[in-house]
Design brief:
It comes from Salegentibacter chungangensis. By secondary structure, the chain is of the alpha/beta class. Helix content is about 25%, strand content about 25%.
Length: about 210
């Protein structure tokens, strides 16, 4: 159990349930192949059955960590920081991103968009989920739309989501890892017929890096 004082700091975004943090190569989407420091925040109630980080769902399993410590760790490695989860927008990202910006960081977020957008972001990767759709406010702000394809119906969902983002948003279809052998041929064929889309792969998994 955390104290009321600590909970109050978490509620304000001064402390966050930190699952893990690490320096690696971005494996997905527009910035794939580039080095970045990842901050994975615990807590998510979207509940995708194919999620590969289900251990992130329960925020109570991850210790509330002061953002000052998180920021200092990040800037010792990189000026490009990716905030992910879990679902990072479960929490108020204002203070974390202000602190990172004060250190000159370029800040990305990977989010389902299911909660109010807080924080200052240089790049927003919106990865919407059918179970809990994004808030309307985030669609025009998304720099890239990344739809995970587990089955054929996800392509219809992808088009519905693409209709809501801005005209400059980059569109990606990414095969769900456990079903990739079936989905990759489907996605390749779809992108060739609909070239507004691009293929995204989890290249970090092929490279066997975090």
């Amino acid at each position: 159990m955390i104290t009321e004082e600590t909970q109050a700091l978490v509620d304000r975004g001064i402390m966050l349930p930190l699952m893990e943090e690490f320096y690696t190569i971005q494996g997905e989407g527009f910035h794939k192949g580039t080095a970045a420091y990842f901050i994975r925040i615990g807590g998510c109630d979207v509940g995708c059955h194919w999620c590969d980080v289900k251990e992130s769902w329960d925020a109570g399993l991850h210790p509330p960590t002061h953002i000052g410590e998180i920021v200092e760790n990040a800037v010792s490695y990189s000026d490009t920081v990716v905030v992910t989860g879990g679902e990072p927008l479960t929490w108020d990202m204002t203070e974390l991103t202000k602190s990172l910006k004060a250190k000159g960081c370029n800040i990305h977020i990977e989010t389902s968009g299911a909660y109010k957008l807080t924080g200052i972001w240089d790049w927003i990767c919106l990865s919407p989920k059918k179970i809990k759709l994004p808030t309307e406010e985030i669609y025009p702000l998304a720099n890239e739309l990344k739809v995970i394809v587990f089955n054929k119906h996800d392509l219809k969902f992808a088009e519905e989501q693409a209709a809501k983002v801005g005209e400059n948003c980059i569109l990606y279809l990414q095969p769900e890892w456990s079903n990739r052998e079936k989905m990759i041929p489907l996605i390749v064929d779809y992108v060739m017929k609909n070239p507004k889309w691009k293929v995204s792969l989890q290249t970090h998994k092929y490279l066997n890096i975090p």
